[in-house]
Amino acid sequence: MATRRRVLGAGLSAAGVGLTTASLLPALRARNASAVPAASAADAAVQLFAAPMPLTPVLAPVSTDGGTDTYEMTMRTGNVGILPGLQTELRTFNGQFPGPTIKARRNRPVVIRQRNELTVDTSVHLHGAEVPQSEDGSPMDTIAPGTERLYTYPNKQAHASLWYHDHAHHVESENVYRGLHGSYLLTDDEEEALPLPKGEYDVLIAIRDARFDTATGALVYQMSDRARTTLLVNGAPYPYFEVAARSYRLRFANHSNQRFVELRLADDGDMVQIASDGGLLPRPHTTKSLYLTSGERADVVVDFSRYPVGTQLVLKNTGFGAVEDVSQVMRFDVVRTAEDDSSVPDVLRTLPPLPEPTAERTVVLRMDEDGRPDPKAYIDEKLYDPTRVDARIRAGASEIWTVTNANTKAPHNFHMHLVQFRILQRDGAAPGPEEAGLKDTVRLLPGETVRLQATFDTYQGEYVYHCHMLDHSAMGMMATMKIG
Fold first, then answer.
1. How many separate domains does the chain show?
2. Distance separating alpha carbons of residues 273 and 238, to the nearest angstrom
């Protein structure tokens, strides 16, 4: 059976080329590099496709009184078996990795009591959600160790595959990397009325990367580390997933701090993309590959009935010249037949026409890539300052933002809190069908420019926008907008 050797602790070696692009900043060294363990003589082999893919548990509410679902979570240290025979210490929600999935419904509020039993500050952000400022989990609105707070999510927006993660500034990158992330699936009548695959055939697949000290199982954290070359799927390295010979809805989410992936079936078979960050696309899009930057989500339907029972089909990562370490993600094993009354309609939803824009503004993303030992990252040449408002927006406005990646080597992506936006252009051309829906995170490769339109007609207050390569936002690539 295939195995994959893990030589970890090698610093910024050639093994990390597949992180984002082959030219990604060999100069972005971590400030704590001396604390990273060297490659172990007891380096272990991670066996490909040796363990089943876990299904992330769905959290049950502690109360459903008054039309509100109330949950309790505790952020605490937990030991989880990821590598064979070893325990890895993680920062977890309820001791689980990834955190438990919450299933919510439009117009039914969710309240979550979050208690912090870690030794670091935390702030829980529901990524992609329309929420009041007080519930956004902003970078400076933190939960101190030993304290707790309530988050209330109104769930007034349409269906979407959202996710939650830590956002405490300067530690958000490490907190998320060490395990503080989970999924939040919001549905509504419009989505449920469609004949898409449902129940056990609607499967969440959260992908991220990691770097381990394979002698001890410890998770190694280093800023801008390109040696995170173990891919995890729902918390397990390179698992297999047994499927029936029928259609499945696969909800892919990229929970990595930095890694971009391009997912492709090994036989180059078709996938039908039906959703992006903000829910269903207007129309399905048949594709050979699915491109996700850190923080992005996309749902596809794969028809496994075209494969005979006994087929073993690898899901590959072909993004950015991915090296061998990260070129395979998981394997689908077709093990049985099953009836299938699902289908993908020609029209999935109707998005309202965009309003006339009321203003335009530009945003420039840039980070130091000249080899300096302590690189910084900027929006409009400014480091994040929580006391500064960078963009003042009238309540109800609909604005066009032109966002540019000014770097020549480093990729970025761009995430706005509070709003789902529409992409108008990419480098002057119309966006592809995969970007035709609602988005909250968009990729920006070196030199790229994206024009997007966002409408600020829900809540008022201060919210951030930033690169969602969390190492970059922790380095300063974040800014504040004030609506009202």
1. 1
2. 23
